[in-house]
Amino acid sequence: MSLVGQPAGNPGHIDTTRGPQSAVVTDCVVMSDPARRKATYEDVLRAPPHFVAELIGGEIFLHPRPAAPHAMAATALGEELGPPFKRGKGGPGGWIIIDEPELHLGPDVLVPDLAGWRRDTMDHVPNAPYFEVRPDWICEVLSPSTERVDRADKLPIYASAGVQYAWLVNPLQHILEVLRREGERWLTVSTYRDDARVRAEPFEAIELELAILWADVRL
Predict the structure, then answer these.
(1) Which helix (H) or strand (E) holds 73?
(2) Contact, 169 vs 141, CB < 8 A?
(3) Cα separation, 136 vs 96, whole angstroms
(4) What is the Cβ-side half-sphere exposure of residue 202, based on CA atoms within 13 angstroms?
(5) CA dist., res. 203 & res. 114, Å (int)
(6) Going from the N-terminus, what domains does the chain have, and what CATH number goes with each?
(7) What's the pLDDT tens digit per position in 76-111?
(8) Contacting residues for 31 by C-beta, under 8 A, at least 6 apart
(9) Partners of residue 86 on adjacent β-strands
């Protein structure tokens, strides 16, 4: 087991002293301005509709909608966890699990691929455009354009907010990493790959077939 997710600097930092600009970090766009003005939620609301906008450390990160392997893995995972944990069909129930919720965690706005709340943490879904109650579990499906931000920037924020578990799914390498929070750091509990059948915290009540996450994707 190892500790991961420590702050490693902002991979999207750009020089903002020469005038208004945006920088492309692989496929992630980081918006800034000449006075290094901290971005606000208004900047999130003004983001182009075909991007996922996140507010991290006072900067806006814009991610294009995920490619097919990413979307397939996130969809399949939600389909597997939903019946036993949301509805109690073949499992214990007791969870609310949502795709791509907008989380407001202090000054930061993050959008994980999946998030789950135990019912004793959040007993109903609020009639609001975003969530201010921190989840108990999040899942980030990694892609080459987002992995650095997911690991170096978002994981420490999740830990500071009190999220207990994080899953990192890599659909191109067929890997699932299971992390548990220890204080404000992350402990890597297990790493699984390919067609393993796993019982992974906090959903160890069911056996998850990883092959389902990679099914129908030709690499």
Answers:
(1) helix 68-81
(2) yes
(3) 10
(4) 21
(5) 14
(6) 2-64 (no CATH), 68-214 (3.90.1570.10)
(7) 999 999 999 999 999 999 999 999 999 999 999 999
(8) 22, 39, 43, 59, 60, 62
(9) none
